[in-house]
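Bumping with the actual sequence this time:
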Amino acid sequence: MKPPRKISQLATLLAFLCLCAALFLPSAVAGTRPAGGPDLARKAGAGKHAHAGRCRARPHKRRRGCRAHSRQAPRHQGGAAEPSTGPVPTHPAPADDPAGPREEAEPEAPEDLESPAEEEAEADEEEEVEEEAEAQAPAGAEEESSFLTNAVTAPAAALRWAPPLMVEPKTITLGTGYTHTTLATNRDYIVKLPATKKVGGTWIDGGHNVVIVGGYITVPQGNSSATVNETTALSIKGATGTVHVEGVLIDGSGGGEFDGITINAPEATVQLENLRIVGVRGGYERVHADVVQPWGGVKDLRIDRLTGRSNYQGLTLKPDLGPIGAAELEEVDVTATTEGTLDRGGHMLWLTRGVDTCSAYPMTLSNVFVTPRPGKPLSGAVWPQKNFTLGCPAAGTKSSLDWPALPVLGAAQLGPPSSGSYVPAGVAGLSYQSPGYRTG
């Protein structure tokens, strides 16, 4: 009976061997697939993922073939790229996946078709060039680039001149009607216009450094007995330091004939910035209305961003009853209007003393625009004009005039500016917000 038992054991052993062969034979056959089959396609894909890994290592650099992936393929040190462990998932991970949700891949942009070897060689070459450039770049260059990209730049409307430094300034708030305020010439002041429209002239008499920021002034209808200062929106007299006027709106809503700003302060520097002076009206036989006139002299007149509208005169900057040291005008637009009764005038920029001399002082014009009365040329809205018979006529074209024989740098251009008024409605006035000042 023993031989049959041995046969039974052999049969059992053969059955076990057959079972093992059935389990291991498919994987062995799969390992002998010829080149060019599906596994080679996955290996070529691994090379692109390695390229994508380089893209992810430098997320601020975008170049052809770079895209987002949810897994980073292992980077290699020379030789062929390591095979990928599988396709990159493009769907969220299951809820019970400990790794959490994965980022979906972005669709790849169309590109020129290249073989895997060409693509890998190009990626290696790009990486070498980038690594060499990064090695030569100074420390922190990448952070600086990111800062410059995301930083908020200084506003284009930042003003050229900041208010003067004040020493224990005294604050004075003006009333809503006509005011004449006398200040000590050895003390600094902050002068506040009222919180509502001021209907009456404003005369600031004296002071050392004086600062006025924001506010709204108009001049009411008067009579023939009204003084010059009562028919002037803002009179500056006798200051000895720097007078800084910024963000003030002056208009003709009060109905009177008036000057915008007059200056009689030969010892002072006067800074006029972000001002809107419109509705100025007058005439030769009535109020000689000007947007700005330093008739009594000024040490240095600085104007940055001013919009003026007048039916008589504009910037009358000629030497008159007091010495003028210099003037700088930047981003100014003045317009001759036809409001009311026209009585001569129409000159929006006047540079010399009187009508028969070439007496002038150093002046710089930068982005100064003049709009004449309708139908008139630019030359008809400035003085001296092109046909001036003395030795300092204006020269240039229909759209731009300068004065080669005067100490004037720059030109007056035919307005208005292409971008519109430098101080449009709503900038200056009761709710004025200063844009800040340049530091250079």
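The tokens above came from a reply further down the thread. The first strand starts at residue 170 and ends at 173.
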